[in-house]
Amino acid sequence: MPSAKMTRRITKGGTSPFGTRREMPVYIEESILALERILINGGRRGYLVGLDPRVCVQLLGARPVQCALAD
């Protein structure tokens, strides 16, 4: 699988789940699904989208994962 840098010509930071040229897997930290609202990258630098995190699962097919460190 090509890296984000190879696919999107991104040198640092994250990759927005919106508007990718190729289908890429989307993962979401399971614990944030309990939050009312999150901000994620909307497709360009400095553009944030506020939404219910469950929308990421419903519309983007994001797979919940447990990757956060415990206290």
Describe this entry's structure for a reader.
With 71 residues, this protein is α+β, with helices and mostly antiparallel strands. 17% of the residues lie in helices and 20% in strands. It has a two-stranded parallel sheet with strand order 1-4. It has a two-stranded antiparallel sheet with strand order 2-3. The longest helix has 7 residues, at 54-60. The radius of gyration is 13 Å and the shape is globular. The termini are far apart. The mean pLDDT is 82.
Please describe the structure with a list of short key phrases separated by commas or semicolons.
two-stranded parallel ribbon, 4 strands, alpha+beta, 71 residues
Short description:
With 71 residues, this protein is α+β, with helices and mostly antiparallel strands.
Proportion of β residues? 15-25%
What is the SS-derived class?
alpha+beta
Radius of gyration: 13 Å
List the strand order in the largest sheet: 1-4
Average pLDDT, all residues: 82
Number of helices: 2
* Number of beta-strand segments: 4
Secondary structure layout plus pairing:
Layout: H1 4-8, E1 27-29, E2 38-41, E3 48-51, H2 54-60, E4 63-65
Parallel strand pairs: 1-4
Antiparallel strand pairs: 2-3
